Amino acid sequence: DGGITQSPKYLFRKEGQNVTLSCEQNLNHDAMYWYRQDPGQGLRLIYYSQIVNDFQKGDIAEGYSVSREKKESFPLTVTSAQKNPTAFYLCASSEGLSTEAFFGQGTRLTVV
Amino acid sequence: SQQGEEDPQALSIQEGENATMNCSYKTSINNLQWYRQNSGRGLVHLILIRSNEREKHSGRLRVTLDTSKKSSSLLITASRAADTASYFCATFGGYQKVTFGTGTKLQVIP
Description:
The complex is a heterodimer.
Chain A: E1 4-7, E2 10-13, E3 19-25, E4 31-37, E5 43-51, E6 54-57, E7 64-66, E8 76-78, E9 87-94, E10 102-103, E11 107-111
Chain B: E1 5-7, E2 10-14, E3 19-24, E4 29-37, E5 43-50, E6 55-58, E7 61-66, E8 71-76, E9 85-93, E10 98-100, E11 104-109
Parallel strand pairs in B: 2-11
Antiparallel strand pairs in B: 1-3, 3-8, 4-5, 4-9, 6-7, 7-8, 9-10, 9-11
């Protein structure tokens, strides 16, 4: 089945640690995105990528980093520089930047 | 900053009634999309309306777009308990960055 997979579903991190969230898609989509969602809030764009080896900062990129070495994969690293990392993180992909986006089921990150 | 703003923030209706949600945005767009999110899950795409379209239907969903007022509405007819979810509008504009609103939380009471 085609789809987009995020792992893990739940992640706990100690303060000061970096952590990497996985996002894989087998939809052959060029564009991929990372969003952050806080309770009762909408989605805020962290990073997006239009094509392999290229990515752009979104509205809240500080404290985060990404890579796009393969078309299928767009991992997000939450660094220790991110002051308030506890949130629900959503990955998405689409054929192009203006087309229908397909979302993963999300990763809930908690800093303990 | 949020491009789309949904209204109302929360809506509670009886099963069988219609639910209407509105979305306002600030800049020009190529298209506007509506998504649904069940609690703690990813978003599911519902419908896409292009900037040159005024109305679009999909099953029990009806979406309108008024580019002069920079607003869109989503109507769910004959609502069901399973429609209970949060609904988000997303705008796709010149920089091709999709921007989501804060959502409308819909509760359909059986």
